[in-house]
């Protein structure tokens, strides 16, 4: 049995605290900071045994050192970014498997936002932790890679089952949806989704996780028909 707890930190980051009751293991995805994460685990009487990082950016790894010092946990992250994440204990890349108790995650390489960005797919749980690669109605900025790589990432992620819950690392949904509406003003599924998103945000509620079916229907980057189209949309969003 897996439980996922959302911990909102910094201005718009989500840290995911994941507990597997069979083994008693608790894992943190991309701890931007340590304090609120340790406090949330303590409140639930959970001991953090692992951290899984998706990429090196400080708003995903900033809590690594302090959480490891407090708990002795093991930190797993992208092999290609080992030099930029000195706290890593285990280096992984596409095809590797990472376990949390009885739960298995497959590592998927999704370079573009950073050169070694990875995602973790938990097929048995119908869950994926995607960091800053796929957002609700958006994708990560192309800091260290190009549109061709992000296009390939979208193909890998859209191939996951419809119901796969997508846990991304930021609450960017409303701004992404506003941009998506400029790209596809006649997309009825998008308009309908944005009505719900606006209502949720007005109540101060989170809009993450999303799922693959919703992204296939509304995400202008997943829906881009070519590398060039994705590139043009990414550039337009960067300048929006
Ligand atoms: Zn990032
Ligand atoms: Fe980030």
What topology does this entry show?
Blueprint: E1 2-9, E2 13-20, E3 25-29, H1 35-43, E4 48-52, H2 58-61, H3 64-71, E5 74-78, E6 90-92, E7 97-100, E8 103-109, E9 118-122, E10 127-131, E11 134-135, E12 138-139, H4 147-158, E13 165-168, H5 173-183, H6 188-202, E14 210-211, H7 212-218, H8 227-238
Parallel strand pairs: 3-4, 4-5, 5-6, 10-13
Antiparallel strand pairs: 1-2, 2-3, 7-8, 8-9, 9-10, 11-12, 13-14
Helix pairs in contact: 4-8, 5-6
The protein binds zinc ion and fe (iii) ion.
Structural account:
The structure is a single chain. By secondary structure, the chain is of the alpha/beta class. The chain has a single domain, classed as Ribonuclease Z/Hydroxyacylglutathione hydrolase-like (Metallo-beta-lactamase, Chain A, 4-Layer Sandwich). Helices cover 32% and strands 27% of the residues. It is built from eight helices and 14 strands. It has helices at residues 35-43, 58-61, 64-71, 147-158, 173-183, 188-202, 212-218, 227-238, and strands at 2-9, 13-20, 25-29, 48-52, 74-78, 90-92, 97-100, 103-109, 118-122, 127-131, 134-135, 138-139, 165-168, 210-211. Strands 1-2-3-4-5-6 form a six-stranded mixed sheet. Strands 7-8-9-10-13-14 form a six-stranded mixed sheet. A hairpin with a 4-residue loop joins strand 9 and strand 10 (127-131). Helix 4 crosses helix 8 (227-238) and helix 5 runs antiparallel to helix 6 (188-202). The radius of gyration is 17 Å and the shape is globular. The termini are far apart. Bound molecules: zinc ion (ZN) and fe (iii) ion. Fe (iii) ion is lined by residues 57, 59-60, 132, 169-170.
